[in-house]
Design brief:
By secondary structure, this protein is α/β, with parallel strands linked by helices. About 35% of the residues lie in helices and about 25% in strands. Strands 1-2-3-8-9-10 form a 6-stranded mixed beta sheet, sandwiched between helices. The protein has a 4-stranded mixed beta sheet with strand order 5-6-4-7. Strand 8 (about 220-230), helix 8 and strand 9 (about 255-260) form a beta-alpha-beta unit. Helix 3 (about 75-95) runs parallel beside helix 5 (about 120-135) and helix 7 (about 190-215) crosses helix 8. The radius of gyration is 23 Å and the shape is elongated. The protein starts with 11 loop residues before the first helix and ends with a strand.
Amino acid sequence: MFHCFRPSGGCEWFGGELAGFVRHFNAKNGTTYELDRCLDVRKGGRQQPEPEVLVRSDNSIETMVIERKMFVWPKDYLKQHRDEHVFSERIQSRLKDLFQDDLYMLRVDASSLREAGKRKDEILTNADQITDLVTRNRSKLTQLKGIKSTLPFQWSFGHARDEERSDDAPERGVGIEINDGMSFFGGVGWSEYQKSCEEIPAEVTRLLEAADRKFVNYPTSLKVVLMELVGEFEFGDDIKRIIAEANLPPRVDQVWVAEPGHNDDFEPEMTYTQIR
């Protein structure tokens, strides 16, 4: 699962999927919660942390407060993801106008991309080296059915394969495939996955305890933590199991997981699962 993160800031009802979650919650439970007010909006002088929003049912009696937490794993995933965007945007900007007769794909390995450059200038230099090689060897694309190199790391460039030409893919231009292979967490092996499973419970506990502190002022409201999975979770069931087995702080009533999925028309859509 590859999930782009949603920036925080402002009221989470509008930018953090909370409106969609409440619609799902109402449909599942036969409730009628609607937004009453945004709580966790930064104001000068505020001391007590607050949950994201308070929602109220149409009888004006029942209330629910929701705290959204982004569960990011591996911990450096957001930096990795930003670096991949920097790399991809540089490739696109230098090659898109040169290859307009068909759809082409540049294929790189995610772990190689990360190991080859940590700083932005290194990432841009690597992208430039690849685009220079592609540009110099354009004439070989037809006779060789593609270009390959190990500089600055292993990559290949050529016409898109049939399986890469999806309905939403453009007919012409350059696409970038950053391949994680069959391993877990962006190119690491089983031993790293097991190590991650040993470390994840502590991160889950930290997030739940942080959420618990925000519920202090709402003893009579239903208190819900919405944990949004951000990262690459090819073993998603294991992540949910770890969340289900974590110690639940006293003020937390329910824990839900949000993760990317699709609707009946196979359009991207967030899915919500109650874990506790």
